[in-house]
Amino acid sequence: MRKSSRIYVAGHTGLLGRALLSVLGERGYTEVITRTHAELDLTDGLAVDGFFKRERPEYVFLSAGLTGGIVANLTYPAAFLHTNIAIQDSVFQAAQKYNAERVVFYGSSCMYPRDCPQPMKEEHMLTGAMEKTSEAYAIAKTVGVIACRAYNAQYKTKRFLALVPNSLYGPYDNFELETSHVLAGLIRRLYEAHIEGRERIALWGSGMPRREFLFSKDAAEASIFAMENADRLENTHYNIGSGADYSIKELAEMAAWGIGYAGAIEWDRTRPDGAERKILDSARFLSLGWRPKVNLEEGLKITCDWFVKNKVKMI
Ligand SMILES: NC(=O)c1ccc[n+]([C@@H]2O[C@H](COP(=O)([O-])OP(=O)(O)OC[C@H]3O[C@@H](n4cnc5c(N)ncnc54)[C@H](OP(=O)(O)O)[C@@H]3O)[C@@H](O)[C@H]2O)c1
User: What is the pLDDT of residue 273?
Assistant: First the structure.
C-alpha cells in the first residue's frame, strides 16, 4: 500500500474498524474512505456496486459484519447468517469487478470444531461439528473464508486475504450486557459493582476455562501487515492470536484491577462454562514476521480507562 492508496475501511465505527482507522492514521495513510451503515448498507449488492464504481477503492479492510455474544447469536441466528453472507458477497463481487488490489476478510475462531484439538490450526476448519450456539455466524464466516479461496483460484489472483483473529478487545468495544462478548461484559459488570460499592460480585461459571484475546490495534497491525505481504501469503486463511491464554478468573482479576474494583469475586458454578480452552495456533502467520505488541495487562488497562472515560454516561 502506498501512503496515497485509496483504502476503504468497511465497518469503521466498530471495534476493529476504529483500530484500523487509528493505525492507518498513525502510519500516514491519507486516502482512507469510510461510509457509515446508514450511508451504505453493505448487504445491498446494487448500492455496494455503485459505491465501488464511484470510489474505486484499491485496498479494502472488510471489518463490517454482524457480531455479538451468545445471547444475540441464539436469538438472531438468521440475521447473523444472512447479514454476514450478504455483506461478504456484495463486497467480494464488487472488489473483483472493479479490480480492487486487495481485500482483507475476517473469519472467526468459532469456525473451528467445538471439540477442536488445542491450539487450533488452520487445517482444523471443517473437520468436525461446530459449537451449536454460534453455528449460523460460524457458517457465514466459513463461507467467507471459502469465498476468498474460490475467487483467488478462479481469477488467478491474490486479491482476497482471509485472517482469523481470536477474540478481540479494546476501546470502542460493545459494552452492552445483552450483546457484548465475554471481556467487555466482564469489564462492564465489574465497573457497575465498583461504582455501586458492592463488596462481592458473582460471575458465571467456574472461572477455569482458558481463552486467548487479541488487542484490536494488534489485529489492525496484522491486517496491514497482510496487505503489505500479500505476495508471500498462500491461498488459505491465517490465524492471528496473541499466543497467550488466560483463565476467566485471571481475566476477571486483571479487569477488576483495571477498573478499580476491590471487592470479592465469586464464581457461580451452576452456570455453564463452555469449552475448556480456546487458543489459536498462529505459527503460520508468525512465520511471516508479524508479532503482536500489546500484552493483555496493557491492553486491558487501555480498554478499562477508555470505558471509564467514555461510557460512564451509559450506566
Ligand atoms: N470482535 C471479535 O472478537 C472478532 C473476532 C474475530 C473476527 N471478528 C470479525 O471482525 C469483523 C469486525 O468485528 P468487530 O468486533 O469490529 O465488529 P463490530 O464492533 O460489531 O462492528 C461491526 C461494524 O460493521 C458495521 N455493519 C454491520 N452491518 C452492516 C451493514 N449491513 N452495512 C454496513 N455496515 C454494517 C457496523 O455498523 P453499525 O454498528 O452502525 O451497524 C460496525 O461499524 C467482523 O467481521 C467480525 O466477524 C471479530
Answer: 76
78, with CB counted inside 10 A (0-12, 13-18, 19+), is exposed
Write down all domains in the chain, each with its CATH number in brackets: 7-174+212-245+278-295 (3.40.50.720)
Query: Which residue, by CA, sits nearest to atom 44 of ligand 1?
Result: 65
pLDDT of residue 181: 82
With cut-offs at 50, 70 and 90, classify the pLDDT of residue 68.
confident
Q: Is 200 helix (H, G, I), strand (E, B) or coil?
A: strand
Can 191 be counted among the known catalytic residues?
no
How remote is the CA of residue 72 from the centroid of ligand 1, in Å? 14
List the catalytic residue out of 8, 29, 137, 172.
Answer: 137
User: What is the spatial order of strands in the sheet that 59-62 belongs to?
Assistant: 32-33, 7-10, 59-62, 102-106, 160-165, 237-240
Q: Which residues line ligand 1 (CB under 6 A)?
A: 11, 13-17, 37, 41-43, 63-67, 83, 87, 106, 108, 165, 167-168, 174, 181
> Which helix (H) or strand (E) segment is 300 a member of?
helix 296-311
- Whole-structure pTM value: 0.95
**96 band by pLDDT with thresholds 50, 70 and 90:** very high
